[in-house]
Amino acid sequence: xxxxxxxxxxxxxxxxxxxxxxxxxxxxxxxxxxxxxxxxxxxxxxxxxxxxxxxxxxxxxxxxxxxxxxxxxxxxxxxxxxxxxxxxxxxxxxxxxxxxxxxxxxxxxxxxxxxxxxxxxxxxxxxxxxxxxxxxxxxxxxxxxxxxxxxxxxxxxxxxxxxxxxxxxxxxxxxxxxxxxxxxxxxxxxxxxxxxxxxxxxxxxx
Length: 206
What we know:
alpha+beta, five-stranded antiparallel sheet, 2 helices, 12 strands
């Protein structure tokens, strides 16, 4: 009777943490730099220089991993790198469309669009600005979770100075990662065998 009670207690203790932990494992969201994009199109102004504005994806974008543990968790990082190149004179307005892509837990994209303007005179008087028209976007995943994606804008002030515009991602909805039904039982069985083995060793040494 006493031995049976001990075995039952070991089984209960082994299964409880495994079952509880299975419901709190959330997906990791991995940024896909290869499928993220940015396109700038001149919409007006007079430009006397070749490619006065350079826009690239941030080099540290690909592979960034967001591993939230609760709804509301956030992560911020650089998204685009802007640079006004030197030129005799330029006055340009432009539109920009971009997308932040994810590869995991499954492919998804958060699109964004905006407008901007730059001007420079002989590389001495320089200015510019970027304004997103829809700064708050969304990346929805087939897994069921989704992220809020907020794109940050800003001013472009100096020739040949790199300006990084950032993005903030927020866990708005999180669904647990599916785990095979047998996993908690397997974990509990391993722990149970270890517990019973310990009891046998104690009896032999007693």
